[in-house]
Design brief:
Shape: globular
Mean pLDDT: 96
CATH class of the largest domain: Alpha Beta
Helix content: 25-40%
Number of helices: 13
Distance between the termini: 84 Å
Largest sheet: 7 strands, mixed
Low-confidence stretches: none
Number of strands: 24
Structural class: alpha/beta
Number of domains: 2
């Protein structure tokens, strides 16, 4: 077992062993479900084993979490913010170890793994400030001796279902805000990254215990679809945040809607970068490389479509192909690696099948297009020339595959950008103000993230993150995303002695 290797010894310092209980419920660790193995995507060897949640574990954990919510929501918001601050401090103390675990278990390169954990720390800082700004409002009443108030109260318990590609950052985007808003959190991490789920939960549990608060305020389950389906059906969860594919997200949404719950969906992306003929070519080339190859193409904000103005088409492709040849592929924990493995052997198989579909629809592979013979899930970063009308272009192949297309006018480019079912992120490279403002305006990009002269990925936490259409419409992290985790009440208070509509009536 990989856990016994010298390079894995850091795992014991973040609460992990060769075999781990995968449920944190009612303040204790257990797991009476199936025993599963966590694999290293770089070699598909076992890192450690985890006992997943059973449905009995789920029910016990949910009951305790629901009860704990009555305690947590009555804590003053600034006090809740202080708990989240302590979680951020605990993360800072374990930043390197947790980042290394993300790289080891998910497969992204070490700087990305550390950066993911740093993102949660940043979210903790953001949430601490927010805890003193959950402001309502006073609304002028049209009636004498009346006052109208708009106030915000916690929902109670929020369910968070996260995906493998950001196995802990997405939790941070949701949980940090949900907690300061007064909600308890139930987290189901991705089935293939259980060690990250356990290590993160261990850290949060320690903060709650140190403050003599019920551990059930934060409840976590390692498990598969059965646990996810239970979360979607559970009427004790007014809000379910789900990150994953559009297909599964639609099923979650339908299940939650049937019980009149609310959904926060972060689903597929099929993101385009447009390069105009006046663009800074070198800046755009570096940005496309970063956006298309980063995380082995497994970000929801990965650039999948490259739209090049016909005037700079070949010049740009030549430069991009040259930098693709310099990408170092290898173990994500090694210095200098730019492209790690895909997350699972199934991901590798889907890449191979996807390339065949691309070729069958007229795609011409310019570089890459094949898997690398090894124990791990490594593939070559790929660039394909293809028509924007090809059906495969409208789908999301979750890997480092970039479709290159040519356009004549800005209008054509915007139409191509908006022609896919997904609507997460988009970017244009240009120096012309009139192009920029057309792009970000009502007749421009239809995505939730609309960038200029930066790539499609690398969103900051201060803005609301999310997209339109088949991306689900959800928004996480900054701006006023916090309002999704609370319920709004309009309150009218009569501080006089008469009811205006009852004048002239004798009530005896």
């Amino acid at each position: 077992m990989g856990f016994l290797r010298k390079e894995y010894q850091f795992l014991s310092e973040i609460g992990l062993g060769p075999r781990n209980p995968g449920c944190y419920l009612n303040g204790s660790w257990r797991g009476s479900g199936p025993l599963v193995a966590s694999l290293n995507p770089a070699n598909n060897e076992v890192i450690a084993e985890v006992m997943e949640a059973s449905m009995d574990d789920y029910e016990e954990g949910m009951k305790a979490c629901f009860d704990a919510s009555k305690i947590w929501m009555q804590l003053p918001a600034p006090k809740r913010g202080d708990i989240v601050r302590q979680i951020g401090d605990a993360l800072r103390a374990r930043l390197q170890h947790l980042g290394r675990l993300v790289s080891l278990e998910m497969g992204k390169i070490l700087p990305e793994g550390i950066g993911e954990v740093q993102e949660i720390i940043d979210m903790c800082d953001f949430a601490v400030g927010l805890s003193r700004q959950l402001n309502g409002s006073v609304i002028p009443s049209e009636r004498p001796n009346h006052m109208m108030l708009e106030i915000w109260n916690p929902l109670g318990v929020v369910g968070v279902i996260t995906a493998f590609n950001f196995p802990c950052a997405v939790l941070g985007w949701n949980a940090c805000i949900a907690l300061v808003c007064g909600n308890c959190v139930v987290w189901k991490g991705a089935p293939t990254t259980p060690l990250i789920t356990i290590a993160m939960t261990e850290l949060i549990a320690g903060v709650l215990e140190k403050n003599n608060l019920p551990g059930a305020i934060f409840t976590a389950f390692c498990g598969g679809a059965e646990i996810g389906q239970a979360i979607a059906r559970d009427i004790r969860l007014p809000l379910v945040s789900f990150t994953g594919s559009s297909k599964v997200g639609l099923m979650v949404q339908q299940t939650v809607n049937e019980r009149f719950g609310k959904c926060l969906l972060e689903l597929s992306g099929n993101n385009a970068i447009i390069v105009m003929d006046d663009a800074d070519i070198q800046l755009a080339v570096r940005s496309v490389l970063f956006a298309a190859v980063g995380t082995a193409g497994q970000r929801c904000t990965t650039c999948r479509r490259l739209l090049l103005h016909e005037g700079i088409y070949q010049e740009f492709l030549d430069q991009l192909l040259a930098v693709y040849q310099q990408v170092k592929i290898g173990d994500p924990l090694d210095n200098g690696t730019l492209l790690g493995p895909l997350h699972t052997p199934v991901s590798k198989e889907n890449f191979i099948k996807g390339i065949e579909v691309i070729k069958s629809q007229g795609g011409k592979v310019l570089t890459g297009g094949y898997a690398i013979e090894s124990k791990g899930n490594f593939v070559q970063p790929t660039i394909v020339e293809i028509s924007s009308d090809a059906e495969v272009v409208k789908e999301e192949l979750f890997g480092p595959v970039l479709y290159a297309m040519k356009f004549k006018t800005l209008k054509d480019a915007i139409e191509i950008n908006n022609s896919v079912p997904q609507g997460l992120s988009s970017s244009i490279f240009t120096r012309r103000p009139e192009v920029i403002f057309k792009w970000i305006g009502p007749l421009g990009s239809d995505c939730g993230i609309v960038n200029v002269n930066i790539p499609t990925n690398g969103a900051e936490i201060g803005g609301a993150f999310g997209g339109e259409k088949a991306t689900g419409g959800g928004r996480e992290a900054g701006s006023d995303s916090w309002k999704q985790y609370m319920r709004r009440s309009t309150c009218t208070i009569n501080y006089g002695s008469e009811l205006p509509l009852a004048q002239g009536i004798n009530f005896g």
